[in-house]
């Protein structure tokens, strides 16, 4: 689609507009789509300002232009294809050289709009999926959900995140595979039928993973792709296959790929601790360099699938391969963990997919004399399912190296190398008596060696290296050092983490280093929307009797507030009660100044809050830092209390974005933090700051802003707060 025809897509439905209408800000929509939205919220989806049904009028000029475009391409479009979001921009490449490396950076085009997708979910329904996945809520109540209950909720998250231009299929497998739901467009009817199919899933029998995988790949290979659609297979399982195809899974997968030349990406998701994670990772690699993710318990379901869907919907190129012509490159610390193969043409690097907002970066050790001789060819499939190629050499494209950037990628790839080497050595250990053997010491030495190399850089200003160092000295080190931790979760976790760093994508909100990947505007917007969808869906139905569950237990929750009688430390060494804090006060420990005091009026002069041991009284879902980690206060207590109070309080600071309340470090509004638990798509963003600045002008009360329930703007899709204004917005 040309740049002009890209504007023919409705920003609400992402469909080619028919009967387009235009609002006073010159934004155009499908008439029915904007009318439905106005009836629900009276808010513009673009400007977030009030918008009435009387404010929109027919856009006749656009209607004529769309008709002309439609007629010009009609002969090229088959009757059952979907016309959506075909990007005209292309991939670009930059190269630089140091004394050690050639740095090749493959850059996506600028953010446009989300890709459409075809997804086939291949779901393990073997007998082991009935085993429990216990989780506790803020009242310390336990829920005996099964693994299949969590998988069902993951599927519902996927279904509700899709739109009418997307298609979904569901395949279950136990003793054999069964097609539960054919590849179907995810309009309202399609979603209803897909959700009904999910409810039919039940656990029994053995684990014939190959039959499920083969069936799913055949569906995506045989069904005609939509124009501009990205296809992916999601394999969800909790264990080891006990039905083996002739020659094994990988040999069978290679054979099927040769026969069908399937182009879809295969992403694997392992639930629980009884996994063949090596097989799941290998399947994802042979599945066009997809990803493998480890889901140890229910708290990871949201974070993993929100990121997986967001990555898929921002994909701009698939099956990316780089050919280094006429060179047989021996594996090095910086290249050996990529999927590669050598032919008479040279060495191929298989790099997976490229998403908006995230480059792919390789460091290839080549001597200076080869720089004038080397030729490279990049091939990939674009969103129109057309194979593209770019051939280049270094003579005409070489740029001055950014040494800071090179250092980042050196440590990124060294992290992958040292951690994977340690993992290999740990996997060589066969019995408990051998655990403190030479292999274990060698594994620990690998981690220590990298820690020593990185330490002086981790004390600098580079945030990526700091967070990568945190990954190394935190979860990675723990996974290697202790026998029970490695055997239970380390052996499954380390491949997932290193895969994310190698291919540069974010697969959860929990590990600091990978939060630096996929930070484009489009990815962030989609991921925030997926956050809201997951937390707002109806709770999963327990296979066994149990209490009602709020899905925030399985993910993260909203912002919170303080009780007015709590104490805040000031920079001058004194304390003040929360209710007495004024704009302009300087707060310990960093000297930040109070910009706004946000006073939320309590309904019926009561609020549900938790009371911690040091008398901090705070809402259950207001993140605090405890033992160096962000947690929710409800995780430290057994009950929530109804507190009598006129109002509760929160603040906006000019820097730092934390404050000591009753000697506990607590987060404040608009903080911008991206770590798990503390991140929030609205309360942690610039959007809440913008809304409060506007309210401050309206109320004109010197930085004290009063909020009532009627002033909360709620998402039409999720019902969660995503805005503040001076009148109530009804959600239907």
TrEMBL record:
<dbReference type="Pfam" id="PF04564">
    <property type="entry name" value="U-box"/>
</dbReference>
<dbReference type="InterPro" id="IPR003613">
    <property type="entry name" value="Ubox_domain"/>
</dbReference>
<dbReference type="Pfam" id="PF00092">
    <property type="entry name" value="VWA"/>
</dbReference>
<dbReference type="InterPro" id="IPR036465">
    <property type="entry name" value="vWFA_dom_sf"/>
</dbReference>
<dbReference type="Pfam" id="PF14624">
    <property type="entry name" value="Vwaint"/>
</dbReference>
<dbReference type="InterPro" id="IPR036844">
    <property type="entry name" value="Hint_dom_sf"/>
</dbReference>
<protein>
    <recommendedName>
        <fullName>VWFA domain-containing protein</fullName>
    </recommendedName>
</protein>
<dbReference type="InterPro" id="IPR051266">
    <property type="entry name" value="CLCR"/>
</dbReference>
<dbReference type="InterPro" id="IPR002035">
    <property type="entry name" value="VWF_A"/>
</dbReference>
<feature type="domain" description="VWFA">
    <location>
        <begin position="118"/>
        <end position="309"/>
    </location>
</feature>
<dbReference type="GO" id="GO:0016567">
    <property type="term" value="P:protein ubiquitination"/>
</dbReference>
<dbReference type="Pfam" id="PF14623">
    <property type="entry name" value="Vint"/>
</dbReference>
<dbReference type="InterPro" id="IPR039510">
    <property type="entry name" value="Vint_dom"/>
</dbReference>
<dbReference type="GO" id="GO:0004842">
    <property type="term" value="F:ubiquitin-protein transferase activity"/>
</dbReference>
<dbReference type="InterPro" id="IPR013083">
    <property type="entry name" value="Znf_RING/FYVE/PHD"/>
</dbReference>
<dbReference type="InterPro" id="IPR032838">
    <property type="entry name" value="Vwaint_dom"/>
</dbReference>
<feature type="domain" description="U-box">
    <location>
        <begin position="3"/>
        <end position="76"/>
    </location>
</feature>
């Amino acid at each position: 689609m040309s740049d002009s025809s890209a504007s023919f897509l409705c920003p609400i439905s992402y469909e080619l507009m028919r009967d387009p209408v235009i609002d006073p800000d010159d934004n155009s929509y499908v008439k029915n789509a904007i009318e439905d939205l106005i009836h629900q919220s009276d808010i513009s989806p673009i400007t977030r300002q009030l918008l009435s049904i009387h404010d929109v009028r027919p856009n006749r000029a656009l209607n004529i232009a769309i008709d002309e475009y439609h007629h010009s391409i009609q002969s090229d479009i088959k009757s059952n294809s979907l016309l959506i979001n075909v990007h005209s921009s292309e991939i670009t490449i930059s190269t630089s050289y140091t004394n050690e490396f050639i740095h090749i950076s493959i850059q996506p085009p600028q953010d446009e709009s989300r890709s459409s997708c075809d997804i086939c979910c291949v779901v393990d329904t073997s007998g082991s999926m009935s085993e429990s996945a216990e989780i506790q809520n803020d009242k310390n109540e336990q829920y005996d959900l099964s693994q299949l209950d969590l998988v069902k909720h993951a599927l519902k998250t996927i279904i509700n995140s899709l739109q009418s231009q997307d298609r979904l299929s569901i395949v279950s497998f136990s003793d054999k595979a069964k097609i539960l739901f054919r590849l179907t467009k995810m309009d309202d009817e399609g979603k209803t039928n897909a959700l009904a199919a999910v409810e039919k899933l039940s656990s029994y029998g053995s684990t014939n993973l190959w039959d499920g995988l083969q069936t799913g790949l055949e569906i995506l290979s045989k069904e005609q792709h939509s124009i501009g659609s990205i296809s992916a297979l999601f394999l969800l399982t909790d264990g080891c296959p006990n039905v083996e195809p002739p020659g094994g899974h990988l040999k069978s997968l290679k054979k099927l790929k040769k026969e069908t030349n399937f182009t879809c990406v295969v992403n694997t998701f392992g639930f629980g601790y009884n996994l063949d994670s090596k097989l799941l990772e290998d399947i994802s690699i042979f599945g066009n360099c997809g990803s493998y993710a480890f889901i140890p318990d229910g708290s990871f379901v949201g974070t993993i699938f929100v990121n997986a869907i967001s990555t898929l919907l921002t994909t701009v190129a698939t099956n990316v391969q780089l050919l280094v012509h006429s060179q047989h490159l021996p594996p090095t610390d910086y290249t050996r963990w990529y999927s590669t193969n050598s032919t008479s043409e040279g060495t191929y690097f298989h790099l997976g997919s490229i998403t908006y907002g995230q480059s792919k970066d390789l460091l290839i050790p080549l001597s200076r004399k080869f720089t004038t001789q080397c030729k490279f060819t990049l091939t990939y499939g674009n969103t129109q399912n057309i194979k593209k190629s770019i051939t280049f050499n270094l003579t005409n494209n070489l740029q001055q190296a950014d040494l800071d950037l090179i250092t980042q990628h050196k440590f990124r790839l060294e992290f992958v190398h040292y951690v994977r080497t340690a993992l290999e050595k740990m996997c060589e250990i066969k019995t408990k008596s051998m655990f403190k053997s030479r292999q274990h010491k060698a594994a620990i030495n690998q981690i220590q060696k990298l820690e020593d190399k990185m330490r002086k850089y981790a004390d600098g200003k580079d945030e990526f290296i700091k967070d990568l160092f945190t990954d190394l000295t935190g979860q990675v080190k723990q996974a290697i050092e202790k026998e029970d931790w490695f055997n239970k979760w380390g052996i499954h976790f380390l491949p997932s983490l290193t895969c994310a760093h190698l291919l540069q994508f974010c697969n959860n909100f929990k590990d600091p280093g990978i939060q630096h990947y996929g930070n484009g505007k489009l990815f962030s917007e989609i991921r925030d929307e997926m956050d809201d969808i997951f937390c707002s869906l109806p709770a999963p139905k327990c296979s066994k009797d149990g209490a009602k569950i709020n899905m925030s237990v399985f993910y993260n929750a909203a912002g919170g507030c303080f009780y007015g009688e709590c104490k805040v430390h000031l920079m001058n060494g004194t304390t003040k009660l929360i209710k007495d804090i004024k704009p302009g006060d300087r707060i310990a420990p960093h000297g930040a100044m109070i910009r706004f005091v946000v006073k939320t009026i309590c309904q019926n002069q009561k609020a549900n809050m938790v009371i911690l041991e040091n008398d901090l009284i705070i809402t259950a879902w207001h993140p605090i830092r405890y033992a160096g980690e962000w947690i929710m206060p409800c995780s430290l207590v057994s009950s929530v209390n109804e507190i009598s109070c006129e109002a509760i309080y929160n603040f906006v600071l000019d820097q730092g974005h934390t404050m000591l309340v009753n000697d506990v470090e607590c987060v404040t509004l608009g903080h911008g933090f991206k770590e798990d638990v503390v991140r929030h798509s609205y309360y942690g963003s610039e959007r809440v700051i913008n809304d409060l600045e506007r309210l401050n002008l309206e109320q004109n009360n010197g930085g004290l802003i009063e909020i009532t329930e009627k002033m909360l703007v709620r998402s039409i899709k999720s019902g969660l707060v995503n805005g503040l204004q001076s009148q109530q917005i009804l959600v239907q």
